[in-house]
Amino acid sequence: MMKYLIINSGSSSIKYQVIEIPTETVLATGLVERIGEGSGRLKNIAFPGSDRELTTVIEQPIADHSQGMMLVIAVLTDQEKGVIADTAEISAVGHRVVHGGEDFRRSTLITPEVISVLEQNIPLAPLHNPANLDGIRVAREMFPAVPQVAVFDTAFHQTMPRRAYLYAVPYRLYEQYRVRRYGFHGTSHRFVAGECARLLEKPLDACNLITVHLGNGCSMTAIENGRSIDTSLGMTPLEGLVMGTRSGDVDPALHLFLKQNIGLELEEIDTLLNKESGLKGLCGMNDMRDIHSAAAAGDERAALALEVQTYRNRKYIGAYMAVLGRVDAIVFTAGIGENDPVTRAESLKGLDVFGVRLDPEKNNEHAGQARCISRAESTVRIFVIPTNEELAIAREIADLTSE
Ligand code: AMP
Question: InterPro entries given for it (predicted)?
Answer without folding.
Answer: Ac/propionate_kinase (IPR004372), Aliphatic_acid_kin_short-chain (IPR000890), Aliphatic_acid_kinase_CS (IPR023865), ATPase_NBD (IPR043129)
